[in-house]
Each structure stands twice: as C-alpha cells, then as structure tokens.
Design goal:
Blueprint (H helix, E strand, L loop, with lengths): L4 E3 L5 E3 L2 H7 L1 H13 L2 H6 L5 H8 L3 H13 L3 E4 L2 E4 L1 H6 L12 H4 L2 H8 L1 H7 L16 H8 L5 H10 L8 E6 L5 H9 L3 E7 L1 H14 L5 E5 L14 H4 L2 H9 L2 E8 L2 E8 L4 E6 L1
Parallel strand pairs: 5-6, 6-7, 8-10
Antiparallel strand pairs: 1-2, 3-4, 5-10, 8-9
Helix pairs in contact: 2-5, 4-5, 10-13, 11-12
C-alpha cells in the first residue's frame, strides 16, 4: 500500500488520509473475497456463468446480491465487467478458480476464519492485557480446532517453500534417514522430503486431530507407510528417542526458542556432513538425522 499524496499549489506533496481510510475499510474487501470464494463465484465465472442471472442460479443467491458483490470485486480489480458480463482477470483465473492447479482460495477458511477474526476484534483489550482475551489459552489451547482449519487451508501455500527446503537440505541424495517434523500441521514439509527420498521415514508431531489431516495428505502423496504420528504438545512430548543422535542435532532449549519464534529449523546430519538452515515460516520444524 503506497502513501497517498496530493500536489499543492506550490508543487509540494502533501499527505492525505486516503491510506488510513483504506486500512479502516479493509475488512470489507476481505469479507467480499471470502463470500465470493464460499459461493464459488470465481469458478462459476471461469466456467461461463458470466451474467448476474446465471451466477445467481449457479450460486443459489439473490441476483441483486450477486450483482453488488461482483461489481465490488470489479472495483477491487478481481473481475472485469463489460456489457453486463463478467470475466476473471489473470490473477483470479490462476489463483481463485477452483479448477486451477494453483488455486489458493481455501486459505480464506483459516486467514478469514472466525478464530482469527474474533481475536482481532478484541485487539485493544489484548494490548492492554498483554495477551489473548479469548477463552482458555486462545490459539495454543490443546487440540484447538483452528489448527485443523490451518492444516486443511494452508497446505497449498506451503508447497513451494517445502520444495525449496527439500532442495536446500539435499533430500534426494540423503539416503536412509528419519525426519522429525515438529508442529507438522498439514505435514507438507516432511511429506515433500519423503517424496524426494524413498528411504526417508517421517515422524510428524502435532495434536492428534491435526495429524489426522496430515495422515490423509501422506496417503495422497503415496508415502503413508513411511509416515509415523507423534500426537501431543511439542513442548512436552518425549521424542528424543525417535531419531538416532537427535540430542547432538539440537538442544531442547534451542528447539523451544525456535518454536516460540515461529521459525522453521532444519538440521541435517548424514555421511559426516551437517547443515542447519533457519528460515521464517509458519510453525513447522523439521529435524533430519542419518539413520
């Protein structure tokens, strides 16, 4: 978002409140996008339902509501409108058509989901308190359902980083190894290493309800027989024995610090070679050990 200025009579740039207005109304754009994704509006347009009448029938919605939503998305430049017909702009065609291999619309379930939105609605009180105002421990409540939504919604966005991490650590040439994926979520990081290395065994640590989703992803990737679950709290569960020489790879206090900082920690040791990579990422952490 760029700072908006205007020219005065003296040709000096003067600040305007436009950017403040954009921030204070950003929730409207997020809500419109989430509604369009939930209605499968972008997919319907991609499949030729390009008028408000056709879209209303396809989306089982009021024609007036569909017209207002589509016109607003046109203003936001996610749609193009001409002679009463809508079409997708390239960005929407690639990322918001459910039939596209690059579809990312599922992210809305987590990023615009009730757990996060409700938390930000009480942000002022959270700042005063210095912590969450939500019940129990907020998002770190054991087996919180929001992490199920995270695992379902965010996997597609992690495919490219997962491929990059697998390349960085040389997964294909590591030979027999064990991978400990801590706070595994969707499991994409460990699964990607397993796809590249048929001798890699994956040990995924997360809440039991989240691991069920990672297990399904492992099955779809064809590595289920090498995917092992460690249910529990990453700060409490005992996993040292899962990897030979794990204690030499990373200390528990270092690990806790990495978890708290939401960093992806990759530590590799094989054939006498060790490599560590710290990379900013969602809460997922992988340790790889020579078997």
């Amino acid at each position: 978002m760029e700072t908006t200025t205007r020219q005065s009579n003296g040709d000096e740039e003067q600040p305007t409140p436009e950017r403040i207005f954009q921030v204070l109304t950003a929730y409207q754009a997020a809500a419109a996008m989430k509604s369009a994704i939930e209605l499968d509006l972008f997919t319907a347009i991609a499949e030729g339902e390009d008028t408000t009448g056709k879209l209303a029938a396809r989306c089982q919605s009021a024609e007036r509501g569909v017209r207002i939503l589509c016109d607003y998305l046109t203003v936001l430049q996610f749609l193009h409108k001409e002679d009463g017909r809508y079409r997708l702009v390239p960005e929407s065609a690639i990322f918001l058509d459910r039939n596209s291999p690059a579809y990312v619309g599922g992210m809305s379930g987590f990023l615009s989901g009730p757990h996060l939105v409700e938390a930000f609605q009480s942000l002022t009180e959270s700042v005063r308190k210095g912590g969450t105002t939500m019940g129990s421990e907020g998002s770190v409540t054991p087996e919180h359902p929001m992490w199920e939504e995270f695992a379902r919604s965010m996997a597609v966005m992690m495919k490219m980083p997962a491929e990059a991490i697998a390349e960085i650590v040389g997964a294909a040439g590591m030979g027999p190894c064990k991978v400990l994926d801590i706070a595994a979520g969707h499991g994409t990081f460990g699964i990607t290493i397993a796809r590249r290395n048929p001798q890699a065994e994956i040990h995924a640590l997360d809440w039991r309800n989240v691991l069920a989703i990672a297990r399904r992803n492992a099955e779809e990737a064809g590595i289920a027989e090498r995917f092992h679950e460690i249910p529990g709290d990453a700060f409490e569960v005992e996993f040292d024995g899962r990897l030979h020489g794990r204690r030499r790879l990373i200390g528990r206090e270092h690990l806790k610090d990495a978890l708290r900082r939401r960093l992806l920690f990759v530590s590799v040791r094989y054939a006498g070679f060790s490599q560590s990579v710290i990379h900013p990422a969602p809460p997922s952490h992988i340790i790889v050990s020579h078997k």
